[in-house]
Design brief:
Blueprint: E1 8-14, E2 20-28, H1 38-47, E3 52-58, H2 68-81, E4 87-95, E5 98-101
Parallel strand pairs: 3-4
Antiparallel strand pairs: 1-2, 1-3, 4-5
Helix pairs in contact: 1-2
């Protein structure tokens, strides 16, 4: 697995059967930061008629451990989507040392 030296944040937009509608880059950033705006992630889901989202990004450091900012951003996307029936299934963080699932870690 090749890990990019810049932070890339993607959103996988899924249909009701969890089939992929679109894998879209939300933002590219510096070595340690790529801002994502929860309202824009949810707005795009509504445009695509996508009720389900999986958020994915990388940690160029190689350590996939979620940061406080990762956890907070995820919670903001979940909160923004909830009243509009857009569900965030998971937030995956990819690094050389593996993949972390915020859902499996109980952080969502």
């Amino acid at each position: 697995m090749t890990v990019r030296q810049e932070v890339m944040r993607n959103a996988h937009y899924l249909d009701r059967k969890n089939q992929l509608i679109l894998d879209e880059i939300q933002n590219r950033g510096t070595i340690d930061h790529a801002p994502v705006y929860p309202r824009e992630v949810v707005r795009r889901a509504l445009e695509l008629s996508s009720p389900n989202i999986i958020v994915v990004h990388n940690h160029p450091s190689g350590d996939p451990t979620p940061s406080r900012a990762d956890i907070e951003m995820t919670r903001q996307i979940v909160a923004a989507g909830r009243p509009l029936n857009v569900e965030v299934h998971d937030h995956l963080i990819v690094g050389r040392e593996g993949v972390a699932s915020l859902k499996q870690l109980g952080l969502m």
